[in-house]
Queue: 4 jobs
Job 1
Amino acid sequence: MTGAGAVAEDERESQQEILEQRSAAIIAGIEAIDPDHVMHLASSTLKIVLSHFIDGPGARRGRRVFAMPREEEGVAIAAGLELAGARPVLIFQDNGIGNLLTSLLTLCQPYHLPLLAIVSRRGGLGEYNSLIHTISERAEALLDAADVRWFQLDARTPVSRWSTEIERAWAFARTTHRPVFVLVNLMGS
Amino acid sequence: MTVVSLGRAEVLRFIDAAVPDSPIVLSLGGIAREMLAVAGRKGNHFVSLDAMGQTVSVALGLALGLEKRGSTGKVLAIEGDGSLLMGLSALSTVGHLKPGLLVYVLDNGVYLATGGQPTASADIDFVAVAIACSWQGAREVRTVEELAAATDWALQTEGPILIRVRIGTAQLPVRYFLADPAILAEDFRRWLRSSMHARDSRQCS
């Protein structure tokens, strides 16, 4: 292959490599936390991470992994789990942030219940969906307006640091008794 | 023939007396306020102040978490028809995971706390929905005798169980409940720790 076709092929390989490296770092970070409950929602960019927990090595005995029909439902289940002393982690896309705000701001925030959410970024460079940016570009603004603490992992943070940062976010949620979101960019930008 | 509906306060008083030592998640509005009026502040009651639609999900998380810690008892949720309809997808998650959960749906057909606007519950068969979502069992009750029988059955049956309680729209004159939610959560966790500790001590002796 030569010319534009070869460049496009190289870009695809590069994107795939980034996806795999960052997914592995996220998996390592979550596994270091050792959650006993992992709740997830459908996400093409998170497919490697989700596969690890749904039917890969992360689907281990003693850990419940299940889909939440809506993000707000996952927040409420996590609130109950936290009350019971469990270790839940939520994994979903940033276009679901709008769904969960009321649940988050009427349960976890005011009741001082820690919660860690791993939230994949959509709608940026490399996006293939023509409209998802309409909500995804506003993820940070929505969380700021809701006074939800968040951290971002993207090209500015070496991938070698990602797993440690996820662990630190878990600890920070517990130290400060509130939800903490880690926004992860798996699309290369 | 005149049919006298069950009153919400009467049902809440019954549930509190029938299940005094189990964790109970109370839905917002009149359910929480009237339970406080008839039973007072109870350590085993987790009061939801505003998270409409999430009562069953909170109870589900609680049940899963307590099962993880070795609890074999049931977690209860007392939900209203309006709030349940807001979070109806929770029934599918509960049916899928099958926790030890007993959900009472106090169904008066209206959003009573906000003036009595109608809900869609008159056309919804909650019992059939629960069964279709793979719950272990579900019943509908209209009298105190039926409520007592259904509760006895539910407490002896593996969960999840749903009991739809048809109630009227009478309300107790109650005050707003203005507690700090962070304190409510900590009080509830303290009760849970104490309850689990007592259970562990009994098992060791």
Job 2
Amino acid sequence: MNEEQDQVLVRRTLRGDKKAFEMIVRKYQRPLLNYVGRMVGERELALDFAQDVFVRAYASLRSFESQYKFSTWLFKIASNLVIDHWRKKKLPTFSLSAPLGQDGDCLTLDVPDDEPAVGQKFELAELRQRIETALEKLPGPLRELFVWRHVNELSYEEMAEIKGLPLGTIKNRVFQAKEMVRRLLQEMS
Amino acid sequence: MNCFKINDIYDYIEGSLSPEHQEELERHLSVCPRCRRAVEDRKLIAGAAFGLPPLAVPDDFTDRVMARIAPAKVKHPVWLIILASASSLLALTAMVMIASGRSALGVLSGASHSFWEYVKSAAVLTAKAATLLTLAGKTVRPLLEVAYKGLSVLTSFIHPGLQVLILILAMGLVVSLFFGMRKKFSVGD
């Protein structure tokens, strides 16, 4: 995502050019909806949330610091909104900064086991469908990282910036999310 | 034979291992079918996850966002605020002068008049307006009372269709009266 172009559009918006913000919305509506949609599950709710993200971003655009990437700032707003939603719904969540394997449901990243491969069992389209189903069962914080990495194709550095966590912690959590998806795929096969 | 950890396998798939570490892992893979299978399986799943289908964005999404956002607060320079205030004051003064019956030439020639003169003109105008309103109230009230009583009597034995016709004619009469009165008591007469 062209960062320089974003900074220009932000400056134009701050000067009162609504057309510039419209261009920002057009640019980020798809990645944002792809993220929010997989976080909240319901399409209509996801559309409302994605709209809210842009409305909040517009309202607090003056607080955006240009040394950061605009896209990460936008995803941070979205992430906060999603976390608020999980809390209101009392959905199970945990801190990504807690040590790996502390909570019973988390996988450690030890050596590979002897379990059979699952990737080859399905055709590509079916595998993707099953990954989507597995994602729905993944704990929210891990699902978020998995979606950012594979759907939004964010770098580990960007994810670390959004979550305000060390790079190593984020990387380990992403690997853990991948392992959990793989385990869920095994259970489904 | 020491197998590699899952973290190393993911780093290897993403190409983020150091050249030495990568070489070491590849040597191990050539002799360890379990790690080879683990790498292949995770590669397949990651490949499928990177191509998850995007969620469709409605055509009117941007319009819906733009309809929700308030116009940006644009910071105006001080000189612009002063200029706008001065223009507004000038326009207001001109309106008072025109309403008090002074011609544009009179306004120009009377530029030396004191502020007190304009206040006096405004006071005279206000007094005229108050007199006009009182007179209108005294004239219209008995007329309305008579009209109401007359209508009450008429509606008891006149056909509804005829009532509508009479009502329209009466409204026309009231409107004509209003414009006639306005012309008679117009300001400056």
Job 3
Amino acid sequence: MEIDTNELLYTALRASFVYFFLLLIIRVLGKREIGNTSAFDLIVALILGEVVDEIIYGDVTILQGVVAIMVVAVWHLVNSWASFKSDVIDKITGAPPTVMVKNGQIQRKNLAKERINEEELFSELRMMGVEEVEEVKQATLEPNGKVSVLLEEWAKPVQRQDLTELKPKGHKKKAQRNGKS
Amino acid sequence: MENLDLPGIVFRVSIMYVYALALLRISGKQSVSHLTALDFIVTLIIGDLFDDVFWAEVPIVQGMVAFASITLVHFLVTYAASRNRFIHQIICSPPRLMIQNGKLLQENLRRERMSPETTQFELRLNGEEHPRNVKEARLEPKGQVSVLKSPLSKPIQKKDLDLLG
């Protein structure tokens, strides 16, 4: 295949154009709409990334590429706007959070629904530094695919306020001990 | 390709967007968002299926079938894995202990091709300087390292306040 110097120049120009056009689209979509919010957002990001290679190589015209990207972006905006406005649409298009552990009890039914093995759950808990499932008040698989863990009161890290509660008690005991001896 | 009409592009992109949204919703969010290595690759494949449909290199129906097939196979595999320990072990490599009670398990580290340097930086990322403070460190199926600290170096929990009596 013969390589045309002009074609290389055009490729560079098209690649640069695509870069700035995508930058614009991503800014318009906003950070909640792209990438990290849900599985579908990730797919949309991937679609945008895949669509542009034909533009860069000149397999489709810039106009065609711009139209395709704009249509994806517009649908995605409409989708996120609609689920923001209406609870019904939000329920239909978005995934609800799934409770995996409640009050130290593994919710096996919910795990099965999400096709998560118990081993995976324990792995997630260990990665958050949790050794025993009893320590967990609630572990939830959130809509963005991440796991949130709320600990039982006794398993929570000590906070400053716990020390101030402790202080008078400690003093009293010390005083008693001193009095006795 | 020059004769690709713009309304056609709008039509195909719109159909595929709604189709993808519907299919992902039916198959459950976990099919892609709970990112194991397999989930990740499946997500990449799915993302790659669309552009050929947009540019009419394949008919819409073919794109739909391809998407549905990948999603269905992945659904069945992850469903089977969640129900059956044996299948789960075939698909996900099981967690492997790297450190136990402060000692590096050389055999396991070799099997996972983890150098001492890698072990060290994984510990640092978990805010730990030395293996001696670690009760158990594992290489988890997703490729991350989990660190459970030894009883003496664990952060204080509220129940520990009882120790002060």
Job 4
Amino acid sequence: MSAQATTAAKPEPAAPMLIVGHWPHLRGKDSTARIMWSVVACLVPVVLASGWFFGIRAYLHVGLAVSTAVLVEALIQRLRKVPVTAADGSAVVTGILVAFCLPAQAGWYVPMVASFIAIAIAKQCFGGLGCNIWNPALIGRAFVQVAYPTDLNPSSYPVLTGGHVTANVGTVGNALPAGVQAVTSASPLAQMKAAAQAAQAAGADAQAAIAQAIQNAQDQIHANLTGGLPNLGDMLLGSRGGNIGETCALLLILGAVYLIARGWVRWQIPVAYLGTFIIGVLALPIHIVAEATQGTTLTASQDQYLWVASWAPDLAWKYVAYHLLSGGLILGSLYMATDMVTSPLTNRGMLIFGAGCGVLTILIRLYGGYPEAVCYSILLMNTTVALIDRYTQPRIFGHQK
Amino acid sequence: MRKATFPGGVHPPADKWTADAAIETPPLPPRLVVPMAQNLGAPSKPIVAKGDKVKRGQTIGKPDGFVSAYLHAPTSGTVAGIEKVVDAATGRQADAVAIEADSEDAWADGTNQPRDWRALKPDEIRQAVAEAGIVGMGGATFPTHVKLTPPPGKTIDTLIINGAECEPYLTCDYRLMLERPADIVAGLAICLAATGAKRGLVAIEDNKPEAVRTLQEALRGADGAAVQVLETKYPQGAEKQLILACLGREVPSGGLPSDVGVIVQNVGTAAAIAEALAQRRPMTERILTVSGDAAARPGNFCCRIGTPIQALFEKAGVAADFEELIFGGPMMGKDQFTADLYVKKGTSGILVFRRAAAYDNGPCIRCGACVRHCPSYLNPSRLSILGESFLDGNLAAVDDAMNIGLMDCILCGTCAYVCPARRRMVHLIEMLRGERRKALERKREKQREQQAHLKREVEKVKP
């Protein structure tokens, strides 16, 4: 072999084997895997915090969701006979986000089912990375929301009782006798909603009872805002009821700030999302329905609209802060609405998309039948992305507008 | 001073390793091979045959049509024949005149003499430029006399001499600006005289402060001429982006710079014009950069057109173990599959790399980076997806791409540079354009057939 090599090299140096590719021959440093693993790195502190707040079950959920996501991705890619790219980090991101929107006490099968739906149905069925219309993690969550309602019922969320011990402190006022106020003690989001809706009164004087009920509801909202809810510091740090990955707002924000600085998360979406949401919170009233009942018969009812900003101006900022920090809004607006694949391409499109998410979220939260609105708002806006892209294309160079 | 720039673009690492390497003249090779296709448009037609004696600057090729160019012998010697060699621009076999050098390197009669170009009328200047075989030396190789002939009804008010050199690695324009500023200034003056423009700008990126100073010095006292400092950004030197940066004028889609009263010439072209007009020296040589990590002694070389690149490799210490060979810069240069190539008028650089770049193509993750950086404000993501769709059999993808500006792409590669999925954007876009051309040709062919058929039918019924 060495003899061959020397004879081949001597008379005519072998022509170099040249590799030909289309220009540009220089590429930037960013890669899909680099972006995805950076998102994972930004979520790891949140994972660690979730274990601190919700116990070992949080790690179990994350572990099951991530491993299911990666395995399902690899398996389906093998079946589809396409390159297996499960190591590019995108399935890991999906797995973590799936786990993040589940409560700690959900069954062990819930993260696995949610991850399977996310990867198999929402991602690979559409053609894999880059082809899906809806955010896979949110589709997974929306599926288990209907498939396992008791596992995900927000009214049975654990709330923090000292240290990081979790306990169920849920009471729901559906079956309570007339004349008793029913207030849920669930996640702050459910609390506020419950306060607005559950005031009931009974008695001979229906009008007086209704007035009393409205007063009770207003008192309850006031009480919630002035001390009935976990304090805002706990809300920011994560010591509150909720899904495992959405409570620690501080770490979520820090990670997102890094991703925004690197340009991998575009500020347009969260700014438009949260901005519109705040405007909505201040501009739209809480809807209080007071009902007077005689036995099981409805005798009178009255709708009352309460603008918190004018009703209790000193509490308005707290009201806004609780809205921002409760539920999955921070997680959703920073990590789910900003998913590159399912959000618009243009800056203008991102602003429209974010604003749409904000409007839907506040409308569902204040007037919908279900307190957690972020998931469905983002999924609905995902549907409009192709349309937004089409109408927000910039003017091409050299063309008239 | 205001730093002019355009929206979009990228900042690739400059890697201008040869910025301080003075222009060297390698020894004259014993044999030169001059490809006939030196310019954009029709290749020149050879007018010499095997055995002819030629001298440097003697015409060996005549233009074949208006958008074509004269071609001259790069040295004196004997024509060894018309050969087929690989054309670095297309990768196809093309005609080339091979010349055995006689080492005298004698100029042809009537060349290499001083001439007072100020006495010439614009038409005579254009004629002299055409006869000197000058083409755009930035790499596009558009025949310069055509550029200096604005369409009737168009007034040119500004001339921009392009010294941006925004491609990484390349430094030939930079060295030219440092070493021969007088030629550039003279070239600018000649172009102003030929076009009647009142204002001349020499546009230079701000990463070349020495060149800015040198040209400012050289332009001192020149009427209506100044240096325009540009932000260092790719593709600052692209014609339309340069005009927008310098003057805030946008060349309309499908239009020419003359539509907004501008002509752009590369600094190398300006210097070549000065040599041709003032010295009667046709274009027989050019400056180019040889660089890349496989070159032990990268440098800037002034070499004759037709120099085999092996001769330059010896000079630059290029080892044989390179994997990628690029003619031009790394952003828009063309990869070559063979090293059996010869220097052409448009060869601004020869880059050799030990390891080839990775040319993978991942799925678009819709990050939008290409949309944000595209200097033509296009949606490259969509265009590339349409390209893939076409390859999957969706023939309508070409029309869809036309509707979103397929022809407005300048193929600068900014989108592919920023793409985290490493998509082959430009490749797909160029492929779609090729398909568009083919479709147009098919349409024309069909029309011709119909007309011929109609004519035959008419002939039949004629009494």
